[in-house]
Structure formats: C-alpha cells, structure tokens
Write a structure and sequence with these properties.
The complex is a heterodimer of chains A (390) and B (175). With 390 residues, chain A is an alpha/beta fold. Chain A folds into two domains: 97 residues, no CATH class; 207 residues, no CATH class. A seven-stranded mixed β-sheet of chain A has the order 1-8-7-2-5-3-4, sandwiched between helices. In chain A, helix 5 runs parallel beside helix 7 and helix 8 packs across helix 9. The radius of gyration of chain A is 26 Å and the shape is globular. Chain B folds into two domains: 80 residues, Recoverin, domain 1 (Orthogonal Bundle), CATH 1.10.238; 75 residues, Recoverin, domain 1, CATH 1.10.238. Chain B contains ten helices and no strands. Chain B is globular and about 55 Å long. The two termini of chain B are 16 Å apart. Classes of the chains: A alpha/beta (390), B mainly alpha (175). At the A-B interface, helix 1, helix 2, helix 3, helix 4 and helix 14 of A face helix 2, helix 4, helix 5, helix 7 and helix 8 of B. Chain A: It is found in: Membrane. Chain A: One of its GO terms (cellular component) is endoplasmic reticulum. Chain A: Keywords: Acyltransferase, Lipid biosynthesis, Lipid metabolism, Membrane, Phospholipid biosynthesis, Phospholipid metabolism, Transferase, Transmembrane, Transmembrane helix. Chain A: Pathway: Lipid metabolism. Chain A: GO terms for molecular function: glycerol-3-phosphate O-acyltransferase activity.
Chain lengths: 390, 175
C-alpha cells in the first residue's frame, strides 16, 4: 500500500505526457505502477531544453531584421547609391543642423545674454529654411525658460504654455527625421482618472505621441544627453522617473503614479507597460502596475512601417544617439497610431487579466503577435521560482 | 548581428554535416549557424553558459544546469553534434546514448543509484522530500530486478528504455 501511494505521488511529478494528448485518446485505466523505464526516460524535458536552444519566442521579440541584400544589377545599384548620397549627404546634414540649432538655442538660452553675438552669427550662416526653423526654435527656447522661471507663481498658465511648447518641440523632432504619422481615433482629452498605455518600440514612441498631446510619461533614467533633456524639459510636463534596477523604487513609483492620476490638472499619464523596447512584431507581457490604479485605461497601438525604416531600438546594441542617426539617415519614419476605446476593470477581473485583455486589443489592432514572457527578462535572469514551478 | 551567412562556406557546411552524421540537412545547418551566432553575443566562437541562460525558456528548464555542463565551450561543429540527438534522422539508440550521457556526469560509462537520484532531484525539486525520492527509486529498481548498488552501463539503458516511442525530436526552423 505504501508503494502505490508513493507511485501515485510520482504520477504527479513526472513529465506529464497525458497533458499533451486529447483526453479521449488515453486508455481509461487506474494509474499504473511506475516502471524503471519511465523514471529513466527524461526525453520530454530534454526535448524542451533543446527546443529552447534551437529557437525561442523571447529572443524573437528582440530580433532586429538584418538588411536583406538586394539583387544588384546595373540599374538598381546606381539608384541605390544615389539614394545613399541623398540620405547621408543632404537629408542627414539638414536634420543635424535642424537639431543642433535647437540644442544650441537651448544651451545658450540657459546662459543668456553673454552669447547674443554668437547667436546672430549662427543665424546668418544658415539658409532661409534654417532661418525659419531657427526662429521657431529660438522662440521656443526664449519663451520656455523665462516662462519656466518667471511664471513660477501662476502655475496654471505656465503649464498650459509649457505643454504647447513641448508639443511644438516634439513636432520639430519628428520633422527632423521626416516622420509621417497617421493618427486614427479620437484625440486624448485631459481628464483626471485616466491612464494611457501603449506598446513600446523605441524612445521615439514618446515623441510621436507627445506631438499630438502633451503627456506625462514614466521613464527609465538614462545617462548622457538624453538624461539632460529628461531633467530639464520633460520635467515641465510632469514626468515620473524610476530606476529599473532599484527594487525599492517600485513602491515609491507606484505611489507617485497614483497621486498623479488623482489630480485633474496634471497632464494625462502615458505608460509603456511592456517595460522595455520590443521589436515591432511582438508584444511581451504587460506589467500590471498600470492597471491597478483604479482608473480608465486608454490603449494606444503604434505600428511602424518597416519598408521605410526599422524603428526598433535595440538598447543592447546601439546607443540612442546611433539610433537617432539611423533614423535621420533613412528616408522617412512612417507609422500609424491608433487611439483605442477606454477600458475599465470588469467585475471580478484581476489586474493581470485586465492587462492581458488590453494587450489583446493592442496586439490585434497593430498586428503584433503575443508572447508570454516578461520584458524584464531582457535584463535579468528568471528567478529560481520559475524553475521550481516547472 | 556581426556574422552573416557568407561566413559559412559550403566546405564548412559539409564538414559539419559529416561530423553529425548527416543528422541535419544543409539548410538546417545554416539556420543553426544563424542561431548559434545569435546566442554567441560576444562573438567568441562558442556560446558561454551565461549566454545560454539568457534564453528564459532554457533557464527555467529543470535540467538546464546539467545540459550547460555538456554545452559549455562547444564550438559550432560540436554544438550541431550535440543537437544531432534531437534530429528525426537519428536512431533511437543514439538518442538513448545521449540520455545516458546526461545521467553519467562523471563520464565513466556507469550510472549509479546516486546519479539517477540527482536527476530525480532536479526534476522534482521541493515537491518530494529526499526520503521519498530514495524510497521510490529503491522500490522501482527492485521491481525491475536491480538493487540499490547496481551500476548501469549503456547496454543496460538500451535494454530498459528499449525502442518504444522515444519522442525526442526538435524542429529546426528554416527561414
């Protein structure tokens, strides 16, 4: 009798081939005794491991497409060369000058009066197109920083102006890499108790969405010049910062999120629940944090057109600067943005189930495939807990 | 990705194919090469244990540590030979030989009670106590006519597992 109970225990633990077969194909018999053969046969587990080695769905999420070699012939090759010349020789310097003039103005607006002479000289050097851009941008900077400091008292007016300015900034950015963006659906409105979630492909997702409406976003702290921009300009829209590697940060961030959503005059909050950049063909599991705030969740789906450029930012392979350069040297960045219907937590639905439901919607709309992995596995290993469960 | 298909010549492919006894077709070998390069991020010519563990599906497998010991430091040719046990073209005998190698951690050609026990431990984790495991194993061995002190060699394994439906196949995606 001891042996049969122990054998029954074993039945639970050995890799269950019965799970893979439809129920009616199994011979209906009482659990038979365990044989040595069954014990020694570890082939199902080994097969799973080998399957993971050969191909796994997680790595596929982060694969950037390698450029296919074109079929060179006497006609295509010169055409392509010509295209390269235009992209690198004309479009790229234009974009650079555009952006550099923006930054230049930002930096020198910070230093103020001393650099008046330099600014004038720069303006003369540029062409008429650059002049208008310069003017626009310098208006922005000369408005932004004074507004920021002087209107400290009148918060409401200040935030309204800053919001518009940031939107304009983002339009400038988008224009610099010839972005063609199609927006579908109702524009987001500024109301309290709502959160926007979107799939994440690159940092420029944020800029594209920001162009239309000023969002407050929750982002990972970045080093370098991106960090500088994060600190100065984005602070005005009310962004929340966190550090992926700091565990305690999570609770603090959750509290900040909740506070932000309650206030009615804050910019609407945008969250990327995947937690990391994913190549624009898959979605990884959404983090439930965004769905636990007890408010409406408005999904946004973003899909880039691969023909023009692969907008996926593989943060392990390139820095953001290289990524921007790649975008600026391509013909255009074409993407579709769909604003979907706000969703509410249903009766008896857990946050995780809610997150999955919204992920379904976004994946269906943008034509992405779903994958059951946690995005953070890109940076960390699965914990032993998961192995135990297996 | 640094490596491109042009780095693998026809000669290389044939050499690898020979080494694994034609377990994979040439197209599959090219796909495996892409995969190998994808896993081998630092381009060292072999995939380190760390790089294997970055595949979450592999990392959560209970036998991952054992397999890592066998996989660590393999170059591409050996990598393909390792995976050849999972090809539909290999015989059940070769697959059983692979299983034997997984059990035989000290590579002395013999599998003892403790070896089987440690694999059982990997598979069941905290679901069973050590005592339960020992009891089950002893009982099953006795039922099959062996004792706690028996040593199993490869022919023994072949006899026990036999030729019956050993499903150990993996499909190499050809893109």
């Amino acid at each position: 009798m001891a042996s049969s109970s122990v054998a029954a225990d074993m039945e639970l633990d050995r890799p269950n081939l019965e799970d893979y077969l439809p129920p009616d194909s199994l011979p209906q018999e009482a659990p038979r005794n365990l044989h040595l053969r069954d014990l020694l046969d570890i082939s199902p587990v080994l097969t799973e491991a080998a399957g993971a080695i050969v191909d796994d769905s997680f790595t596929r999420c982060f694969k950037s497409n390698s450029p296919e070699p074109w079929n060179w012939n006497i006609y295509l090759f010169p055409l392509w060369c010509f295209g390269v010349v235009i992209r690198y020789g004309i479009l790229f310097p234009l974009s650079c000058l555009f952006i550099v003039s923006t930054n230049w103005e930002v930096i020198e607006a910070n230093i103020t009066s001393k650099t008046f002479g330099v600014k004038r000289g720069f303006r003369e050097a540029g062409g008429p197109v650059l002049n208008t851009c310069n003017r626009m941008v310098s208006i922005f900077c000369r408005l932004f920083f004074p507004v920021h400091f002087l209107l400290k008292g009148q918060d409401k007016l200040r935030s309204k102006i800053e919001r518009k300015l940031v939107e304009m900034m983002c339009s400038v950015f988008v224009a610099s890499w010839t972005g063609v963006i199609k927006y579908h659906g109702p524009r987001p409105s500024t109301r309290p108790h709502q959160v926007f979630v979107a799939n994440h492909t690159s940092m420029i997702d944020f800029i594209i969405l920001e162009q239309m409406t000023a969002f407050a976003v929750i982002m990972q702290k970045h080093p370098g010049w991106v960090g500088f921009i994060q600190k100065t300009i984005l602070e005005s829209v009310g962004c929340i910062w966190f550090n992926r590697n700091d565990l305690r940060d999570r609770e603090v961030t959750a509290r900040k999120l909740r506070d932000h959503v309650q206030q009615s005059d804050n910019n609407p909050l945008l969250i990327f629940p995947e937690g990391t950049c994913v190549n624009n063909q898959y979605t990884v599991m959404f983090k439930k944090g965004a769905f636990e705030l007890g408010c409406a969740v408005c999904p946004i789906a973003i899909k880039y057109n691969k023909i023009f450029v692969d907008a996926f930012w593989n943060s392990k392979k390139q820095s953001f600067t290289m990524h921007l350069v790649r975008l600026m040297t391509s013909w255009a960045v074409v993407c579709d943005v769909w604003y979907l219907e706000p969703q509410y937590l249903r009766e008896g639905e857990t946050a995780i189930a809610f997150a999955e439901r919204v992920r379904d919607m976004i994946a269906a709309r943008a034509g992405l495939k779903k994958v059951p992995w946690d995005g953070y596995l890109k940076h960390n290993r699965p914990s032993p807990k998961h192995t135990e469960e297996k | 990705m640094g490596s491109t298909p042009s780095m693998l010549t026809q000669y290389d492919i044939e050499e690898v194919q020979d080494h694994c006894n034609h377990a994979f077709s040439q197209q599959e070998i090219v796909s495996l090469y892409h995969r190998f390069c994808q896993l081998d991020r630092n381009g060292g010519g072999f995939v380190s244990a760390d790089e294997f563990m970055s595949v979450p599906e592999f990392a959560v497998n209970p036998l991952s540590q054992r397999l890592l010991r066998m996989l660590d430091g393999l170059n591409f040719k050996e990598f393909v030979a390792f995976l050849s046990a999972f090809s539909p073209h290999t015989s059940p005998q070769q697959k059983i030989e692979f299983i034997f190698k997984v059990y035989d951690t000290d590579c002395n050609g013999k599998v003892a009670f403790d070896d089987i026990l440690s694999i059982l431990r990997d598979l069941t984790g905290s679901f069973m106590t050590e005592q339960q495991r020992q009891k089950v194993l002893t009982h099953v061995l006795e039922e099959a006519g062996y004792t706690k002190d028996s040593h199993f060699t490869l022919p023994d394994f072949m006899k026990i597992i036999g030729n019956s439906e050993l499903k150990m196949e993996v499909e190499v995606p050809i893109d």
